[in-house]
Amino acid sequence: MRPTRNHWGIIGPIPHSEFEPESIRAKIRANPLLAGVDADAVKPRVMTLTQSTYDGVLYNTEEIKSLLDGYVDNLHFDEAWLPHAAFHPFYGTYHAMGRKRGRTKHSVTYATQSIHKLLAGISQASHVLVQDPRM
User: Fold this and answer.
1) What's the chain's Rg over C-alpha atoms?
2) How many Å apart are CA 94 and CA 61, to the nearest integer?
3) Among candidates 132, 112, 5, 14, which has minimal Cα distance to 67?
4) Torsion region of 29: left, alpha or beta (phi above 0 gives left; psi -120 to 50 gives alpha)
5) What per-residue confidence (pLDDT) applies to 118?
6) pLDDT of 67-118, one tens digit each?
7) How far apart are the first and last CA of the chain?
């Protein structure tokens, strides 16, 4: 998925259209390394998205999960700088999972969080949160 970039070189958000399955199929068809692969039959195994980026770009994870649930087997949100999001209503649906949030029906959702980035070097702890739709 290709993000936008402004004239200062700052990487911006990935357009919503890039997350649509047909857009992903088109990229599979156009990739010379995947010659002979039936883009309509193959399913991507994992989507990894940096949430939030160094420039502060956040994505609505619920929209992405609804677009890709069942099409991509594993949805990985790299929330290295965002483990605090579940604790403030400002972030709403801008983090992978939380209380009172629906689960995907088919895809496994992952959130990786680098807790040590918020604890001022007290530890090197990280979390890998997994939400299996079958449980």
Assistant:
1) 16
2) 6
3) 14
4) alpha
5) 64
6) 999 999 999 999 988 888 888 889 999 999 988 888 999 999 999 988 766 6
7) 30
Question: How deeply is 39 buried, as exposed, middle or buried, from its count of CB atoms within 10 A (0-12, 13-18, 19+)?
Answer: middle
Retrieve residue 54's tokens: 């160094």
d(CA 104, CA 62): 9
Residue recorded with tokens 């949430």: 51
Mention every residue, 6+ apart, whose C-beta is less than 8 A from residue 123: 115, 116
CA-to-CA distance for 124 and 70, rounded, in angstroms? 34
